[in-house]
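Input (structure):
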C-alpha cells in the first residue's frame, strides 16, 4: 500500500487586512510568505509584479510576513517598518524599497527609507518604538507555521503551496495554467 501525498495547503485564507495588489475579484490568488532580508525573496520579488502585468484582473497578489529571525537579524524590524508604512498608505512603496536596499536594513537605514517616502516621522518613530505592528507580523508568522512553512519565499496559488525549488518559472507556469483553466 502506498502512502498518499497531500499537498500543503494554506491555513489562513485571504483576509481584508492583507496587503494585496491586483483585482479583488480575481479568480486567482497568489500569496507569498516572505522575508525582507532573504536573498531568495529578493530574487522572487519581481515575479508577482510580472504576473500581475501579464494577467491583469485575473490575478491578485498578497504578501505576508515570515521573517526568519534566526538567520536574518534585521528581518523582523523590516517587517515592522513595512507595517508602519502601511498605516500611512505606503506598504507597497516600502516593500519595494526594502527589497531594493536589502543589504541595508539597519535601524538608521529604515528610518531613512521612511523619510524618503515622506512618512510622518514622529508617528513612524513612536509606532516603531512601541512595536505597534509586531502583533500583526507575529500573526502572519503563526499562520505560516500552521501552513507548514519552513523557508522563504513560500507561495500559495489558490491555497495550494507551489514548488519553486527549481526556479520561478514553475510559478509562472502554474499561474498560466490556472488562468487557462479559469481557476
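Output (sequence):
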Amino acid at each position: 500500500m502506498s502512502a498518499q501525498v497531500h499537498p500543503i495547503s494554506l491555513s489562513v485564507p485571504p483576509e481584508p487586512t492583507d496587503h494585496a495588489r491586483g483585482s479583488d475579484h480575481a479568480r486567482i490568488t497568489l500569496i507569498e510568505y516572505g522575508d525582507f532580508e532573504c536573498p531568495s525573496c529578493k530574487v522572487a520579488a519581481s515575479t508577482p509584479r510580472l504576473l500581475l502585468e501579464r494577467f491583469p484582473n485575473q490575478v491578485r497578489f498578497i504578501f505576508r510576513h515570515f521573517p526568519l529571525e534566526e538567520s536574518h537579524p534585521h528581518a523582523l524590524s523590516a517587517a515592522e517598518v513595512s507595517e508602519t508604512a502601511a498605516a500611512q498608505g505606503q506598504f507597497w512603496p516600502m516593500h519595494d524599497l526594502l527589497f531594493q536596499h536589502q543589504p541595508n536594513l539597519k535601524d538608521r537605514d529604515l528610518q531613512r527609507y521612511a523619510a524618503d517616502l515622506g512618512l510622518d516621522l514622529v508617528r513612524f518613530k513612536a509606532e516603531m518604538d512601541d512595536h505597534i505592528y509586531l502583533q500583526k507580523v507575529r500573526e502572519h508568522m503563526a499562520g505560516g507555521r500552521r501552513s507548514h512553512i519552513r523557508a522563504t519565499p513560500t507561495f500559495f496559488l489558490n491555497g495550494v503551496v507551489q514548488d519553486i525549488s527549481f526556479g520561478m518559472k514553475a510559478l509562472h507556469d502554474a499561474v498560466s495554467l490556472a488562468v487557462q483553466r479559469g481557476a
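Notes: The chain is about 45% helix and 15% strand. Strands lie at 19-22, 28-34, 59-65, 154-157, 160-162.
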